[in-house]
Amino acid sequence: MDYRESKFESYDNKNIKNDKTKLAKLIDSRVSNSANKGQHYPKLSKKSSAYYKMFQEIYHLKCAYCGVNTAIQPTSMFEIDHYVNKMQEKLSDGVSVHHIKNIVFACRKCNQAKKDFDVNTGSNTCCECLHPDNEVLPVVFERKENYSIEIKPEYSDCKLVNEFYEKMDFSNRLRKLDYLLLNLYTMRELPEFKMRKNLINNLLVELITTRNQQV
Ligand SMILES: [Zn+2]
């Protein structure tokens, strides 16, 4: 099970790369200056733009790193993350860091935590292996019964995974609260909770308000 999904939701993330490629083609088709083709970030980062809305839909309105959605953290608290940070300018294949393949939909907490995490240097020989689009994150991390995010035992010795886990602040107690909220949010539509929907909604509003005052 993907640690980014609540117990009441399930997404097929296999199409994220393809959908991003299609969006990139659409953006590039509307750019006349060939030098600006492949520079998707400036177009995507404007929250009022149709491209931004399409981009967040591709990620199911969920943070690619932790799975919190825009109902829990409003869109205003989501950001567009450069997986390989902006200082690098180019990816290992020579493509600009502003290309859509290096751009990820992320909540503010994850984006700020990850800031400047250098996926390209040091002992790391698989610089892009933890890119959320590669479907590796749910292989490496898991959600425990107490709602915490943990490194799976078979990856406990991996230096890169440990560095990433620390940098992302995955052990922060807010991660557990976010998962509780995600579960409440997704369970309230189920028929068996129909009678309790108002109660769950009220609880959600109160908890989300308190949560967002802390970040
Ligand atoms: Zn996040």
From TrEMBL:
One of its GO terms (molecular function) is endonuclease activity. The keyword Mitochondrion does not apply. This is HNH endonuclease. Pfam families: HNH. Keywords: Endonuclease, Hydrolase, Nuclease. The lineage of its organism: Bacteria, Bacillati, Bacillota, Clostridia, Eubacteriales. It comes from the Bacteria. It comes from Acetobacterium malicum. Residues 63-116 form the HNH domain. The keyword Transmembrane does not apply.
